[in-house]
Specification:
TIM Barrel; alpha/beta; 228 residues; 8 strands; 18% strand; 35% helix; eight-stranded parallel beta sheet
Protein backbone atom coordinates (compact mmCIF):
# COMPACT_ATOMS: atom_id res chain seq x y z
CA UNK A 1 0.00 0.00 0.00
CA UNK A 2 1.33 3.44 -0.94
CA UNK A 3 1.88 5.80 1.98
CA UNK A 4 -0.75 8.50 2.33
CA UNK A 5 0.19 12.04 1.29
CA UNK A 6 -0.18 14.71 3.96
CA UNK A 7 -0.98 18.23 2.74
CA UNK A 8 -0.91 20.73 5.63
CA UNK A 9 -3.32 23.62 5.07
CA UNK A 10 -1.65 26.97 5.62
CA UNK A 11 -5.06 28.36 6.61
CA UNK A 12 -4.02 27.28 10.13
CA UNK A 13 -0.44 28.59 9.89
CA UNK A 14 1.03 31.72 11.49
CA UNK A 15 0.62 34.23 8.63
CA UNK A 16 3.18 36.56 10.16
CA UNK A 17 5.81 33.83 9.56
CA UNK A 18 4.46 32.14 6.43
CA UNK A 19 7.79 31.52 4.67
CA UNK A 20 9.21 29.98 7.83
CA UNK A 21 6.04 27.92 8.35
CA UNK A 22 6.03 26.33 4.88
CA UNK A 23 9.76 25.55 5.12
CA UNK A 24 9.10 23.91 8.49
CA UNK A 25 6.30 21.66 7.23
CA UNK A 26 8.36 20.58 4.23
CA UNK A 27 11.29 19.74 6.53
CA UNK A 28 8.87 17.83 8.76
CA UNK A 29 7.78 15.57 5.89
CA UNK A 30 4.79 17.29 4.28
CA UNK A 31 4.06 16.05 0.75
CA UNK A 32 2.10 19.09 -0.49
CA UNK A 33 1.30 22.60 0.75
CA UNK A 34 -2.49 23.06 0.74
CA UNK A 35 -3.46 26.63 -0.15
CA UNK A 36 -7.06 27.67 0.66
CA UNK A 37 -8.42 30.54 -1.43
CA UNK A 38 -11.72 32.01 -0.20
CA UNK A 39 -13.51 35.00 -1.70
CA UNK A 40 -16.23 35.92 0.86
CA UNK A 41 -18.72 35.19 -1.92
CA UNK A 42 -18.73 31.46 -2.64
CA UNK A 43 -17.78 30.83 1.00
CA UNK A 44 -18.20 33.11 4.05
CA UNK A 45 -14.55 33.96 4.59
CA UNK A 46 -11.79 35.91 2.87
CA UNK A 47 -8.24 34.56 2.76
CA UNK A 48 -5.32 34.79 0.34
CA UNK A 49 -4.61 35.19 -3.35
CA UNK A 50 -1.95 34.70 -6.05
CA UNK A 51 0.54 37.17 -4.52
CA UNK A 52 0.85 35.02 -1.38
CA UNK A 53 1.25 31.89 -3.51
CA UNK A 54 4.01 33.62 -5.46
CA UNK A 55 5.65 34.71 -2.19
CA UNK A 56 5.84 31.18 -0.71
CA UNK A 57 6.81 29.40 -3.95
CA UNK A 58 10.58 29.97 -3.54
CA UNK A 59 10.45 28.62 0.02
CA UNK A 60 9.41 25.03 -0.84
CA UNK A 61 10.17 22.33 -3.39
CA UNK A 62 7.00 20.30 -2.74
CA UNK A 63 3.84 20.90 -4.81
CA UNK A 64 1.48 23.75 -3.94
CA UNK A 65 -2.10 22.47 -3.95
CA UNK A 66 -4.45 25.43 -4.57
CA UNK A 67 -8.09 24.93 -3.56
CA UNK A 68 -10.24 27.64 -5.12
CA UNK A 69 -13.35 28.40 -3.06
CA UNK A 70 -14.24 31.27 -5.37
CA UNK A 71 -16.87 32.24 -7.91
CA UNK A 72 -16.23 32.75 -10.79
CA UNK A 73 -13.18 30.51 -11.18
CA UNK A 74 -11.66 31.02 -14.62
CA UNK A 75 -10.06 34.45 -14.15
CA UNK A 76 -7.94 33.19 -11.24
CA UNK A 77 -6.59 30.04 -12.92
CA UNK A 78 -3.87 31.76 -15.02
CA UNK A 79 -2.87 33.96 -12.06
CA UNK A 80 -2.29 30.99 -9.74
CA UNK A 81 -0.54 28.98 -12.45
CA UNK A 82 1.84 31.90 -12.99
CA UNK A 83 2.28 32.27 -9.21
CA UNK A 84 3.63 28.72 -8.95
CA UNK A 85 0.65 26.46 -8.23
CA UNK A 86 1.12 22.80 -9.20
CA UNK A 87 -2.42 21.59 -8.54
CA UNK A 88 -5.61 23.68 -8.89
CA UNK A 89 -8.98 22.38 -7.72
CA UNK A 90 -12.36 24.13 -7.81
CA UNK A 91 -16.02 23.54 -6.97
CA UNK A 92 -18.15 22.55 -9.98
CA UNK A 93 -21.02 24.78 -8.80
CA UNK A 94 -18.71 27.78 -9.12
CA UNK A 95 -17.88 27.26 -12.81
CA UNK A 96 -20.12 28.05 -15.79
CA UNK A 97 -18.39 25.33 -17.83
CA UNK A 98 -16.69 22.63 -15.73
CA UNK A 99 -15.04 20.81 -18.65
CA UNK A 100 -13.57 24.04 -20.02
CA UNK A 101 -12.24 25.12 -16.61
CA UNK A 102 -10.54 21.76 -16.08
CA UNK A 103 -8.93 21.98 -19.52
CA UNK A 104 -7.81 25.57 -18.84
CA UNK A 105 -6.02 24.43 -15.66
CA UNK A 106 -4.23 21.68 -17.58
CA UNK A 107 -3.38 24.03 -20.44
CA UNK A 108 -1.59 26.23 -17.89
CA UNK A 109 0.60 23.30 -16.84
CA UNK A 110 -1.14 22.38 -13.58
CA UNK A 111 -2.91 19.25 -12.41
CA UNK A 112 -6.67 19.80 -12.34
CA UNK A 113 -9.38 18.65 -9.97
CA UNK A 114 -12.93 19.02 -8.72
CA UNK A 115 -13.96 19.66 -5.11
CA UNK A 116 -17.17 18.23 -3.67
CA UNK A 117 -18.88 19.84 -0.69
CA UNK A 118 -20.61 17.46 1.77
CA UNK A 119 -23.96 17.86 -0.05
CA UNK A 120 -22.60 17.99 -3.62
CA UNK A 121 -23.30 14.78 -5.57
CA UNK A 122 -20.42 12.88 -7.18
CA UNK A 123 -22.22 12.69 -10.54
CA UNK A 124 -20.28 15.77 -11.71
CA UNK A 125 -17.25 13.45 -11.96
CA UNK A 126 -18.84 11.10 -14.45
CA UNK A 127 -18.76 13.45 -17.43
CA UNK A 128 -15.19 14.75 -17.01
CA UNK A 129 -13.19 11.76 -15.74
CA UNK A 130 -10.63 12.09 -18.54
CA UNK A 131 -9.83 15.65 -17.43
CA UNK A 132 -9.32 14.90 -13.72
CA UNK A 133 -6.01 14.50 -11.90
CA UNK A 134 -7.47 14.99 -8.42
CA UNK A 135 -10.84 14.65 -6.70
CA UNK A 136 -11.13 16.48 -3.35
CA UNK A 137 -13.95 15.64 -0.95
CA UNK A 138 -14.74 18.21 1.70
CA UNK A 139 -15.41 16.50 5.03
CA UNK A 140 -16.56 19.80 6.54
CA UNK A 141 -18.53 22.68 5.05
CA UNK A 142 -15.90 25.01 3.58
CA UNK A 143 -15.13 28.43 4.98
CA UNK A 144 -13.32 27.93 8.27
CA UNK A 145 -10.57 25.75 9.74
CA UNK A 146 -10.84 23.65 12.88
CA UNK A 147 -14.22 22.01 12.13
CA UNK A 148 -15.18 18.42 12.99
CA UNK A 149 -15.08 15.65 10.38
CA UNK A 150 -18.53 14.80 8.92
CA UNK A 151 -18.89 10.98 9.16
CA UNK A 152 -21.05 10.68 6.01
CA UNK A 153 -17.90 11.53 4.06
CA UNK A 154 -16.71 7.92 4.52
CA UNK A 155 -19.32 6.22 2.28
CA UNK A 156 -18.95 9.07 -0.19
CA UNK A 157 -15.19 8.41 -0.27
CA UNK A 158 -15.86 4.75 -1.00
CA UNK A 159 -18.17 5.72 -3.87
CA UNK A 160 -15.59 8.12 -5.32
CA UNK A 161 -12.85 5.48 -5.04
CA UNK A 162 -15.08 2.98 -6.86
CA UNK A 163 -15.63 5.46 -9.70
CA UNK A 164 -11.89 6.11 -9.97
CA UNK A 165 -10.99 2.41 -9.90
CA UNK A 166 -13.54 1.66 -12.63
CA UNK A 167 -12.15 4.50 -14.75
CA UNK A 168 -8.56 3.25 -14.35
CA UNK A 169 -9.60 -0.36 -15.06
CA UNK A 170 -11.05 0.84 -18.37
CA UNK A 171 -7.69 2.34 -19.32
CA UNK A 172 -8.12 5.82 -17.84
CA UNK A 173 -5.45 7.91 -16.15
CA UNK A 174 -4.88 7.63 -12.37
CA UNK A 175 -6.81 10.16 -10.26
CA UNK A 176 -5.80 11.11 -6.72
CA UNK A 177 -8.50 11.13 -4.01
CA UNK A 178 -8.02 13.87 -1.43
CA UNK A 179 -9.95 14.69 1.77
CA UNK A 180 -10.08 18.04 3.55
CA UNK A 181 -11.61 18.82 6.92
CA UNK A 182 -11.26 17.50 10.45
CA UNK A 183 -8.51 14.98 9.64
CA UNK A 184 -6.81 13.85 12.86
CA UNK A 185 -4.69 10.92 14.06
CA UNK A 186 -7.81 9.26 15.50
CA UNK A 187 -9.77 9.15 12.20
CA UNK A 188 -7.17 9.10 9.42
CA UNK A 189 -7.08 5.28 9.32
CA UNK A 190 -10.83 5.17 8.58
CA UNK A 191 -10.43 7.89 5.94
CA UNK A 192 -7.62 6.05 4.15
CA UNK A 193 -9.42 2.71 4.45
CA UNK A 194 -12.41 4.32 2.70
CA UNK A 195 -10.21 5.20 -0.27
CA UNK A 196 -8.36 8.46 0.32
CA UNK A 197 -4.68 8.66 -0.67
CA UNK A 198 -4.14 12.34 0.20
CA UNK A 199 -5.22 14.07 3.43
CA UNK A 200 -5.33 17.79 4.14
CA UNK A 201 -4.60 18.59 7.78
CA UNK A 202 -4.68 22.14 9.11
CA UNK A 203 -5.12 22.63 12.83
CA UNK A 204 -3.92 19.04 13.47
CA UNK A 205 -0.49 20.02 12.09
CA UNK A 206 -0.10 23.70 12.88
CA UNK A 207 -1.59 23.30 16.35
CA UNK A 208 0.81 20.48 17.25
CA UNK A 209 2.52 21.14 20.60
CA UNK A 210 6.31 21.12 20.69
CA UNK A 211 6.15 18.57 23.53
CA UNK A 212 4.77 16.03 21.02
CA UNK A 213 7.57 16.62 18.51
CA UNK A 214 6.03 19.64 16.78
CA UNK A 215 5.34 19.44 13.05
CA UNK A 216 7.61 16.45 12.46
CA UNK A 217 6.03 14.52 15.32
CA UNK A 218 2.45 15.07 14.15
CA UNK A 219 3.35 14.35 10.50
CA UNK A 220 4.88 11.01 11.51
CA UNK A 221 1.93 10.26 13.80
CA UNK A 222 -0.57 10.93 10.98
CA UNK A 223 1.30 8.74 8.49
CA UNK A 224 1.68 5.92 11.03
CA UNK A 225 -1.97 6.14 12.08
CA UNK A 226 -3.06 6.10 8.42
CA UNK A 227 -1.85 2.53 7.93
CA UNK A 228 -2.76 1.23 11.40
Amino acid sequence: MNPVRIAPSILSADFARLGEEVRAIEAAGADWVHFDVMDNHYVPNLTIGPLVCEAIRPHVQIPIDVHLMVEPVDALVPLFAKAGANIITFHPEASRHVDRTLQMIRDHGCKAGLVFNPATPLEWMDHVMDRLDVVLLMSVNPGFGGQKFIPSTLPKLQAARQRINTHVARGGQPILLEVDGGVKTDNIAQIVAAGADTCVAGSAVFGAPDADGGYRGVMQALKQAAVA
